[in-house]
Amino acid sequence: MLNKNGSIKRISLFIINFLNISLLCGCATFYANRYPNDHYAPTLARNIPIYNNFPSEPYQVIGEIGGDGAPLSSWGGIGNRLREYAAQIGGDAIVIQQQGSRYVGTYNTPSYSNTTSTVYGSSTGTAQVYGNTIYGKSYGQAYGQSNTTYYRGSSIPMYGKSVKALVIKYSDPAKRLKSVAGFFIYK
Fold it and tell me: What is the pTM of this model?
């Protein structure tokens, strides 16, 4: 039941919007493809740097990783997931090949209206009784007012995050834990 301010409708819309936003934040898909001839022991994800450019030290490309994040997912969160997948296939570093946003759909909010009406009136009348029958006349007047508020819906395009990268293994084992010149894009 609505009160005259429409607060229950607002609460319902708030709950629906909260659930939709929660879904927008939580969905992501990732993949890792290890090249067939390259099998290495897993490494620690927290030690894997992410670069825009290839390092100057000798390395070997051992696989590809990528992921698609939800519209409200963070680049930092995506970077951490990329590190996890690179660590599973034994990577020492990640080199971003493609990064951007992709259209994933449109978020629509509904349109609705809220109308409140107030009616006032008075009446007078006379009645006469003839046997078992009552005859009467009544006169009255009524007046009132009505107020309608319209809420326009909206359509918002949504763009998710997308990234593709290569996983590398340093050729010199001594260089594996050493910092490599490059540009970190995820912290």
Answer: 0.60
